[in-house]
Amino acid sequence: MPKISINYWDLVHLVGRELSIKELEDIFPNIKCEWVSSDGETIELETTHERPDLISTEGIARALRAYLGIESGLKQFKFKRSGLKAIVDKSVIPERPHSRMFIVKDVSMTSALIEQLMQMQEKLHLIYTNNRRDASIGVYDLDTFKWPITYCAKDDYRFVPLGETEEMSCKEVLEKTEKGREYAHLIGKKYPLIIDAEGKVLSMPPILNSEDTKLTAETKNLFVDVSGMDEKTVEKIATLMAVALAERGNVETVTMEYPKRKIESPELKTEVRKVSHQYINKLLGTSFDTGEMVRLLEKMGFGAKAEGNNINVRIPCYRFDVLHDCDIAEEIAIAYGYNRLEPILPKVSTIGRRHPVERLSEQIREIMIGAGFQEVLTYILCSKELMEKANFSGFVEIINPVSEEYNCVRNSLIPRHLDVLHNNKHHPLPHKIFEVEDCVEVHGNKTETVRKLCVMMIDHGITFTNMKSLLQVLMKNLGYEYSISEIKHPAFLEGRTGKIKISGKDVGIIGEVHPEVLNRFELKHPVVAMEINIEKIIERG
Amino acid sequence: MGIDDIKQSLHDDEKKVLLALKGKKKMSESEIARLTGMPLASVSHASLWLYSKGLVNINEKRLKYIELNDEGKQYLKKGLPERRAINAIGKKEILVKDVEDAIGKNVFKIAIAWLMRNGLATISNGKIKLTDAGLKALKSKMDTEKAIGLLKTRKSIDEIPENALKIIEKRGKVINKTEETLRTIELTDKGKDIIKSGIEIGKDINVLTTKHIENWKKYTFRPYNIKAEAPPLKIGKGQPYKAMLDEARDHLTSMGFVEVRGPIIETEFWNFDALFQPQFHPARSMSDTYYIKKPKKGELPKGYSDLVRKTHENGWKTGSTGWRYTWDPEKAKRLILRTHTTAVSVRTMVKNNGIIPGKYFTIARNFRHDVIDATHLPEFYQCEGIVVEENMTFKNLLGMLKEFAMEFAHAKKVRFQPSYFPYTEPSVELFAKHPKIGWIELGGAGMFRPEVRLPTGIDCEVMAWGLGFDRLSMLKLGINDIRQLFSTDLKWLEDTKIRYEWV
After folding, report:
1. Is A388's Cβ below 8 Å from some Cβ in B?
2. How would you classify residue B159: left for phi > 0, otherwise alpha for psi between -120 and 50, otherwise beta?
3. Fewest Cβ atoms nearer than 10 Å: which of A22, A84, A451, B338?
4. Residue B376's pLDDT is what?
5. Are residues A373 and A482 in the same domain?
6. What is d(CA B357, CA A484) in angstroms, rounded to the nearest whole number?
7. A74 lies in some domain
8. What pLDDT, on a 0 to 100 scale, did the predictor assign at position B354?
């Protein structure tokens, strides 16, 4: 979930009403912001993935104004035409074809605004743009260049990139700057550039802006561009930026001249959905009338109008998470307050039943505990090193592990249990441990989750016979006939290792652990082990 | 306690000790042991019990003892090396080699050293003969032999004359010195009174035997000191976290839920696509999900996967707009480690789509692509379930969740908070009030989106919920570090209590 931080005073200023920190903490969950912490000045929040409109102070302020009734219902954004023109040159179409631009006038630059702009860009890039491929954002000082501007692609060009003092070629930008190296893979044959009427570079999307057009404390008017490979994402991000900055100044549109069409950017799209009042009450278990629903939707910043038994819902242009009527139902439930809804225990009468594998696991646990064994619980993830130390192979490996300690999925509990004995060397003998848990086996090109019982004993003078006694009593109590035949396994001592069969099917292994393995685990006393695939036992019955 | 009560409480061993002391001023424990034929340890125990009842006083004294070590005992048995040499030489002058052959090379070496040092023999031209002192030694015991002879048994240092002690110590490593506490026992006046009142041995029974049980009327059964600490006992025991999870399974079964199970390694299809999580969702990346090396891909369920594709692309017949992108079956086939057990729930819906009503649950492990620390495990248990029934509402879901909070967390107060999951709408998070800690999050829930349930063939509402027991279990076990839930420290496992109190 996106984590953001906002300034309390900035927020209160944008909401336009006094609100204590405590009040905010109570309200935030209802506008889908999870409270993390606050020092009285900065508030740390977590928002949810489906609500990119909430990753800015501006967006949160807008949601609060609606929720508190200061400005409820659908917010109308009326952007003036600036009359400014941007040409999208055909050279850029094969490289990075989509672009939306707009300007914001009369902005009062504050440190809070700069921080918000940076945070918004960073979070939108990180979460919603496929790492800048689908879309990327640039913000500039409007008064540092001449219109009309051109969005084009060139074989090379020279400019001073942001944060540098020397002019560089586009090629050099990719090689010498940090951002250049990070995003070089997004550049195709030519370099996308935004150039002003006099040939001055504004930026090289999606890599870097130019030093000349950067924002300063004196900046009064902003220019914003969003470009990318995915038109829908470009449109969405431009919308989010425009409605957020509308809280800070006057947004005006830019005419974008594509080779074959003209767009007045940004285009804000309000979708309309006709929702059945009955459907919502049926889903929520409520009996709201249409008027109540309209009022509740307005509280969430939606436009709503009752039409007979339906409600005509106008979805705010910055809400991309409304796909179905159920999404409208949730807005109504949240606006009403989840905690005001009466919880009603459903009267569904069904007969409960344990899963056969789980039931058998529990029965085995009972026998094992009765036999005086200590149950352990270990991770399914394992290290390759540990598995191999115990002479095991054939397990699933992970492509992208977080640590070397957990880079594969065990196919046997035995290696980890040897590790448990190793870690308990200081503890007086004997140790008798067991676990009934899941492993993953690979059969051909298929993986299979299997429940296994592993039993291990370590003590002076312990032998195969001790484990055999346990196997006998276990099988007797579970009611299974089994047979044992000799088998070789690299983890076990030859001649003291058996394959356990039930109804002709191999279900497990029993034996004395090989001294070579014991030495690797620094175990000074004999260890006997047994592992049974209990899923195979069930298949038989 | 009165005299009779005390008498009642006396063990036969105590009585024997008292009787041994009768008429004597004081005795050491070993004297009592010799006199009574009791093992010394029993005398010590009995004396301590008597002391605790005020019948005797115990005086302790540190004593030093010496005794022959193995080498010394050999000398005592076979004679000192020089003695054996002297006897072999006799009154004649013989070849040195003959002496060596007679008594063995190793003994001979030591013997020669002592013969020379004490001037008992002389050697010239490879021949050896005894001196006058040597000839004298042939007839009578040497001082060293006399001294060692005093140590046939272990002796207190006080018992050995000073010059003998010096000789022995000079001889080198033939003795061990030990220190011991000598306890002497002395009757108190109360002890004397008890003896005067008469003590009978043999009528009181300690450990019951068949004979005693058959003729129980003939005996009196000595009461035990039931307050005494007994020796420790190792038992077989369940792992506490697993025991709690099993308890939860039983709770859910009793609430009418059927337990289901699903694979740990899943296709992205069941983990994400079937749950209407678009393929461009940020969670579906190398930084959030574990991908496996081999095999790389699994299979897609025929028919159903096509409906899922349509739903993603244009909403199919669900009334949804869908995500409006081109769905890629190859991405859906990729194998990953399950990130949530909701994958099991949707599998269950496909498998049992004709069965309404249905209530299903699973408690199983999921994998988190995250760094491990005191609050994050690489894998965690989730308790996940669904309720499929006509006319279920969001209020019913809240009712169910409240019940869970009361059942699993014994919560008197619950709170619901809006939340987001790509597969449920409305979505909710459940919090329970802990009397000390405050609000704790128990899990998330929601009504499955039509985009999730309709392709599975379910045309009525489905309530879905997922609870986490990690935090609850930590509170119950009184631990602060989540890694402790998977602790394999056998000492901790053996000592941890299995009954918990919520508060």
Report:
1. no
2. alpha
3. A22
4. 84
5. yes
6. 46
7. no
8. 64
If asked whether residues A255 and A290 sit together in one domain, one would say no
Residues of B in contact with A313 (CB under 8 A): none
Q: Which amino acid is at A491?
A: A
Residues B231-255: tens digit of each pLDDT? 888 899 999 999 989 989 999 999 9
Does the distance separating the beta carbons of A342 and B378 come in below 8 Å?
A: no
Q: Give me the domain span that covers residue A46.
A: 3-67
Please give, rounded to a whole number of angstroms, the shortest distance from the CA of B283 to a CA of chain A: 10
In a domain, A345, yes or no: no
Tell me if B379 sits within 8 A of A382, measured CB to CB: no
Structure tokens at B7: 């008498």
Indicate the DSSP class of residue A97. Answer: -
Cβ–Cβ gap A427/B237 under 8 Å: no
Residue A276 touches partner B, C-beta closer than 8 Å: no
Rounded to the nearest 10 degrees, what angle do helices A231-245 and A111-128 cross at? 160
Extract the tokens encoding A157: 């060009």
- Rounded to a whole number of angstroms, the distance from the CA of B334 to the nearest CA of chain A is 12
Backbone phi, psi, residue A514, to 5°:
-65, 135
DSSP assignment, residue A155? S
Encode pLDDT of B309-326 as tens digits: 999 999 999 999 999 999
Nearest-neighbour CA in chain A from B234: distance (Å) = 8
Q: What tokens were used for A179?
A: 């951002």
Task: Find the CATH number of the domain harbouring B8.
Answer: 1.10.10.10
Encoded amino acid at A364, one letter: I
ipTM of the complex: 0.91
- Please report the residues numbered 89 through 148 in chain A whose beta carbons come closer than 8 angstroms to any beta carbon of chain B: 127-128, 130
Which residue has 């006799």 as its token pair?
B90
Angle between helices A325-336 and A290-299 (to 10 degrees): 80
Query: B254 vs A325: CB contact, 8 Å cut-off?
Result: no
Give the span between the Cα atoms of B417 and B426, in whole angstroms.
11
Contact (CB, 8 A) for A92 and A225: no
Chain B residues with CB-CB distance to A398 below 8 A = 290-293, 337
As a whole number of angstroms, the distance between CA B361 and CA B252 comes to 8
Instruction: Name the residue in chain A with its Cα closest to that of B447.
Output: A283
Beta-carbon contacts below 8 Å between A and B: 265
Q: What is the CATH number of the domain that holds A334?
A: 3.30.56.10
- CA dihedral defined by B47, B51, B55, B58, rounded to 10 degrees? 70
Chain segment B189-204, per-residue pLDDT in tens: 988 888 888 887 766 6
- Contact call for B237 and A403, based on CB within 8 A: no
The nearest CA of chain B is from the CA of A168 a distance in Å of: 34
Contact A196, A190 (CB under 8 A): no
Q: Residue B85 belongs to what domain range? A: 68-177
pLDDT above 50: residue B373: yes
